[in-house]
Amino acid sequence: MRSGIRSWVGWCGLLCLVVGCSGIPAAEVALREVATGLAQPVAMTTARDGSGRLFITLQGGRIVIFDGKQVLSAPFLDLRDRVSSGGERGLLSLAFHPDFARNRAFFVNYTNRAGNTVVSRFEVSPQTPNIASPDSERPVLTVSQPYANHNGGQLQFGPDGFLYIGMGDGGSGGDPQNRAQNPHELLGKLLRIDVNQPPYRIPADNPWVNRPNARPEVWALGLRNPWRFSFDRLTGDLYIADVGQDQWEEINFQPAGHPGGQNYGWRRMEGRHCFKPASACNDGTLTLPVLEYDHRLGSAVIGGYVYRGSQIPVLVGRYVYGDFSSGRVWAARIRQGAWVNEELMATGLSISSFGEDEAGELYLIDYAGGRLLQFAPP
After folding, report:
1. Quick one: residue 313, left, alpha or beta (phi over 0 = left, psi -120 to 50 = alpha)?
2. Which residue, among 310, 314, 321, has the nearest Cα to 360 in the 3D structure?
3. What pLDDT sits at residue 21?
4. Spatial distance between the Cα atoms of 310 and 307, rounded to a whole number of angstroms
5. Is 329 domain-assigned?
6. What's the predicted TM-score (pTM) here?
7. Angle value at C-alpha 228, between 226 and 234, nearest 5 degrees
8. CATH number for 72
9. pLDDT attached to residue 46
10. Is 325 helix (H, G, I), strand (E, B) or coil?
11. Where on the phi/psi map is residue 69: left (φ > 0), alpha (ψ -120 to 50), or beta?
């Protein structure tokens, strides 16, 4: 999430980034404990197969299932023999193929024993739907990591059916090799690949296809550590939370149907502010974040989801996200053509991720407490 996972920070009033704020009444939203006893949970997703199962990724190398009543004792997948875990390394996310109900395929992102990022395909048998074999692994993509931090880690299938992969800038501090701005590097990027032809192929409309000195897998560049990103399940809009350096955390936005190729600025900019160079950093080609906050409010942004559930009407259509270090949770939306950012709650939790179930209800993961909690009416 961030170098040396930041310590707790002091809490301050919310910085309103756009045309004012009007808080969501605290009485409208609560957190309900769903599962406990989880060892360093970092992600949650579903198979969207009608089973209602929640799949929880544990950093140490396992994926476990909450079946609606309990966390099953046998893990869905156990990769501890091939995962390097600790700090920002580990088993980082899971994404089910859009056609999972037919092909039984899913994908994981993990750090291997050499410290490099691996994206692999697995399959689960219909006869044992709650247990997948580690032996079914088929590597899709391996990316060398020069440092131990800024691995990114998120996998999401977009509404176009392609697999999107969040890659950090490779680590250290300040992106010393300027990898995020180099289109020939996969680090510091959002990647987009077609996994329907193993191991993968390049979508013909990727923005850097057939360009010299550029990797065709790249969909967007200029990212520092996009630990969590998501698509609005209703509109297809893309939200990328990019963890900042020393001062600013940011949320980037790409509307549905955009052709890609955006440059989100790092390391030329941190948030909306020049980083390196210290001035005259934006030549007009950069896409600035729609939201940012400084480190008085938290120091490791955790991307969430646009709420599309039914239990909390006040949240419908709002992008809910948080901060690992401060435990704050915000809800953002566009109102009268401008972004409005509102504080939802100050949880005091070490938020490592958000997740949504098949019905669009929203969940929060408490990393230090080992818990999965659901946003619910009070």
Report:
1. alpha
2. 310
3. 45
4. 9
5. yes
6. 0.94
7. 120
8. 2.120.10.30
9. 98
10. coil
11. alpha
- Tell me the CA end-to-end span of the chain in Å, nearest whole number: 30
To which residue do tokens 């859009």 refer?
Answer: 98
Q: How far apart are CA 105 and CA 98, in angstroms?
A: 9
Phi, psi of 145 (to 5 degrees): -115, 120
pLDDT for residue 23: 60
pLDDT at 25: 64
On whether the CB atoms of residues 201 and 183 are closer than 8 A, the answer is: no
Q: Do 377 and 367 contact (CB within 8 A), yes or no?
A: no
H or E segment and range at residue 273: strand 273-274
| 223 touches 270 (CB < 8 A) | no
**Location of structure tokens 């901060």:** 323
Question: Tokens 């996998």 label which residue?
Answer: 155
**Residues with pLDDT less than 50, the chain:** 2-22
Amino acid symbol at 120: S
The structural domain count of the chain equals 1
316 falls within a domain: yes
Joined tokens for residue 25? 């009444």
With a CB cutoff of 8 Å and minimum separation 6, the contacts of 147 are: 170, 171, 172
Closest-CA residue to 282 (of 294, 304, 265): 265
Please report whether residue 166 resides in a domain: yes
User: Buried (b) or exposed (e) across 216-238, using 16+ Cβ within 10 A?
Assistant: bbbbbbbbbbbbbbbbbeeeebb
> In this structure, is residue 19 part of a structural domain?
no
Tokens of 41: 């949970």
Supply the pLDDT for residue 243: 98
Interior/surface letters 326-337, b for 16+ CB within 10 angstroms, e for the rest: bbbbbbbbeeee
Residue with the two structure tokens 């296809």: 209
pLDDT of residue 26: 61
219 lies in which domain range? Answer: 26-376
Tokens of 32: 């309900």
CA 209 – CA 216 distance, rounded (Å): 5
